[in-house]
From TrEMBL:
This is HAD family hydrolase. It comes from Methylobacterium dankookense. InterPro entries: HAD-like_sf, HAD_sf. It comes from the Bacteria.
Amino acid sequence: MLLPERSAARVVSCDVFDTLLLRDHRSESRRFRDIAGLAARRLAAEHGIQRDPAAIWTARTEVQRHAYRALDLARPTGDVRFADMVDAMARILGLAGPAAAILHEAEIAVERSQLSANAPLLAWLAAEAWSGTRVIAVSDIYHEAGTIALLLGALCPRHPVARIYTSADHDATKRTGALFATVLREEGAAPGEILHIGDDHRADVAIPRALGLRTLQVVRPRHLILRRRTDALRARIVSALAPPPRYGRPGSRFA
């Protein structure tokens, strides 16, 4: 990504995942399996609760799939909330209280371990902020702003982001333009005063450009995209060959 010497914008808006924070070669399915494995280990070590990692992974993927299917039917401009997905997963897995909280904590722990700061972009943004440009983050994600702030604080503690907008918090997405409308209203800015930077062609380039925002696309290396696709294919094969997950009930070996 070639960054201009100066943005000439009043506000620079940045996507978070694969823009401010870079994901590694692992696919989403692999990441969910890593989260499930960590959650299972912590449940056993901290609460003496045995849960099959495959059951946690299946609950995670199925809850997310059904949540987004329902969203598309009910309010296609909105987004789901991770807290709601965790509640649904906990009910499926028979977890409550601190044990249920591990489902959320494991997700954030794995995210932190598999993300890295986009150092060149953050350095450029810091220079922009020093010169008086307001820097914000705008993300289509089921996490709330507080969670994104924790990740940014852990991985790039001196980041210049002044405010974080997420689709989960505002029930509006970039891909429909609704979140950008919220940003424009909240920031009190005209579309031409904002430069938006992101990796997704539709959500970060086509839609904001149609609304009058200036845009700059982050393009990940082709070899990384191919590695993720290979990893996703491997995950599907493993899933197809795996035995059915055991959710566990009180009194069973997996209770």
